[in-house]
């Protein structure tokens, strides 16, 4: 509200410049009108920063580290929504859906890609209010999978060596182990090949507001159900709501990128 | 802060007020005291320029100020370093730095041919898959109110048709002008056709973010800035998108959008991105 008041004061001073004509008042009022107009824009642009500095000055804290106000969030008791409180009685509930699309457009045929494009647009245009779609891409952690394949290959090599020297062994058994080794070799080669296997998650977030937490959740739940139906019908895929820790995983970088310091040192 | 009016209009109004008061001060007292009138006028005009400069380059100015005075901003367990290019979180004895990029789509999908649209999807996925670090691409959309949009479009189409017929009636019609009018009419017609088919115009706000972990704050920031530069290059060069590095308030706004999507269309429209 403050920027609007300041702009009003600026208009007042500009009118006074128009009405009173003496060199001194012209200089003073034009300076004041411009000053308040400048302050209005500075407040629009730096409100959070100015607020932080004023708070630090009030509490006598040093100005090299200021605490800024960023809306805090909490997870609702049922673990399905993210709740943000703004002002005295305005609550925002955000629900998150995960669209399970298993096929990449690189694997799809030309017609299938055309249809997917069309259906995506249709799904979006069914929802009237603001909606956020996020594509989360990350490299798959294949170290464990690679170890498993290497172990299986070693086992196959060991059995092959054993059976190769056995004169009673049948030819088809030797061949079976040879084929098994080449299969694991091929799989390992595929894992090393670029582009590295990526995982892509399609996430939809919807926020609705209410005067109480319950009303915000109710509004968000309705909107979420509407979006779920729209995406399920248009894309012919499963859409599941995220819950509990999965919601935080979407926001917090340490949960989104779960690394240990050993991983980084190894790098 | 929730804006009732578009902040862009307020800043233009503020700059206009500065300029207007300067003009009145100059005109009012130029006959009485000319040097003072010139000084008042000039000062107000400079303030008007400064107002527009603050609005358009505000985030850069703030990051320069915080870098000079080494001011760090904190919220919850996050820290924004003085350069204001990343948001850093400390968790599990590690530092996680996140950087953001704003995206402008130069050419809308509807203006592409069907073939182009499909291949764009494939290129998009291929380009993104070439990145070796985690990326979050966020797109916020809402449907435009089409009733007013359609009427405006129809009126414009009629206007261009009239211009075209006038041009044709001339003794020596200009072929370039005629072609320009014909192209504009065809574009408007295709847009109107899309509307009648049920494809509604969608407003899109898009940004990308990437996160890197490091054993120290500097390490994490260095890594994420490298990732940000690579991501920016991929988005700009491969996908023909216009990108800009987001800093300060724009960056915080994007972070908040992860758990609090704007509800009203105006909130999204007035957002600082």
Provide a count of the helices of chain A.
9
Report the sheet with the most strands of chain A, covering strand number, pairing sense and barrel closure: 6 strands, antiparallel
Shape of chain A: elongated
Poorly predicted spans of chain B: none
Q: Mean of residue pLDDT of chain B?
A: 81
How much strand content do the residues of chain B show?
A: 15-25%
Using the CA coordinates, give the radius of gyration of chain B.
25 Å
Unreliable residue runs of chain A: none
What is the number of strand segments of chain B?
Answer: 7
> Major sheet of chain B: size, sense and barrel closure?
7 strands, antiparallel
The average pLDDT score of chain A comes to: 80
Overall SS class of chain A: alpha+beta
How far apart are the termini of chain B? Answer: 15 Å
Q: Proportion of β residues of chain A?
A: 15-25%
Radius of gyration of chain A: 31 Å
- DSSP summary: helix tally of chain B: 8
- Number of extended strands of chain A: 7
Distance between the termini of chain A: 51 Å
Q: What global shape of chain B is seen?
A: flat
Quick structural overview:
The complex is a heterodimer of chains A (267) and B (273). Chain A is of the alpha+beta class and 267 residues long.
